[in-house]
Design a protein that fits this description.
Elements (H helix, E strand, L loop, with lengths): L1 H5 L7 H30 L5 H30 L3 H25 L4 E2 L1 H14 L5 H7 L10 H6 L6 E3 L8 H11 L8 E6 L2 E6 L5 H16 L7 H22 L3 E5 L11 E4 L2 E3 L1
Parallel strand pairs: 1-5, 2-4
Antiparallel strand pairs: 3-4, 6-7
Helix pairs in contact: 5-9, 9-10
Length: about 280
């Protein structure tokens, strides 16, 4: 809509601006469709996604009809008054964005993504208790973390120190061999490998790992990142925590309605394959 309004101001670039507006609407439609599908699955508590989708479509149709009628009324009132047109457009756009923000804030999603996992683990390590989806939703960032205040970034930023699905060839050959010889004994039964480098925990995922393995690897990486400046024997301490506390943590998370089948993260493109030749060695 913004492109349509400014296009008459630049006659020489009219076609370009209108086309740019159409492309922008297409991008918005794709993003809207993707988020709508995820939210429909969230609200389909009784596996009634089709029913939820139909009702949402009906509500959207009614809202569009009412909006169209009000839009025609506003257009008739503001015709011939450019200042009133721009004021109406900007004020309604800001209200629309604020309403969307508040609507997203009301959501209490029970799926685990990197940030929610970080918030849950941070609170668990501090208090021994697990937060509910509603409590976590009030702590989760809605806007990108780059746009949030500094103190808000600092509160729960462990997930920013973890890189999931790191390509093993991104490490120096001698460096990775030395690392494997020193810490491989901690991952003999795991389908992942953690490599801490310059404060960042890299997760190398095995090609046969499933959703539960990836979630476990990410939680393990968060524990390792949390202990990065507290302990000298990072892998030993984090492995001890995983053996003693991980199942307790997962059971408490499940008891509050969280879904622990998998971690909602970006697709893991790079996976590795290794064979346990001995108790202290892994080969890629």
């Amino acid at each position: 809509m913004l492109m349509d309004l400014i296009s008459p101001l630049f006659p020489s670039a009219f076609v370009f601006i209108v086309c740019l507006g159409s492309i922008s609407r297409s991008f918005t439609g794709v993003a809207s469709g993707a988020t709508r599908a995820a939210l429909t699955q969230h609200f389909a508590l009784q596996d009634n996604a089709a029913d939820i989708s139909a009702k949402e479509g009906s509500q959207e149709t009614v809202a569009m009809m009412v909006g169209m009628a009000l839009g025609m009324l506003v257009a008739r009132i503001t015709i011939g008054h450019p200042l009133a047109i721009w004021f109406s457009f900007l004020s309604l756009t800001m209200f629309h964005m604020y309403a969307n923000y508040r609507a997203v804030r009301c959501l209490a999603l029970n799926s685990l993504n990197p940030e929610r996992s970080s918030i849950l683990l941070h609170h668990f390590t501090e208090t021994g208790q697990v937060l509910s989806p509603k409590q976590v939703s009030s702590l989760e960032h809605v806007l990108p973390i780059q746009l949030t205040p500094w103190h808000s970034k600092k509160a729960n930023s462990l997930d920013t120190k973890v890189r999931l699905g790191t390509r093993i060839s991104s490490f120096d050959e001698m460096e990775i061999k030395e690392h494997l010889l020193s810490v491989a004994s901690y991952y003999t039964k795991a389908k992942y490998l953690l490599v801490e480098k310059k404060g960042i925990v890299n997760v190398i995922v095995h090609k046969d790992s499933n959703g539960a393995d990836i979630l476990k690897s990410f939680i393990h990486a968060l524990v390792l990142a949390n202990n990065a400046y507290k302990s000298k024997s990072l892998h030993s301490d984090s492995q001890t925590w995983m053996e003693n506390q991980y199942e307790v943590f997962i059971q408490k998370v499940k008891s509050l309605g969280w879904k622990t089948e998998r971690l909602l993260s970006s697709p893991i493109i790079w996976r590795a394959n290794w064979i346990h030749q001995s108790a202290t060695e892994k080969n890629d």
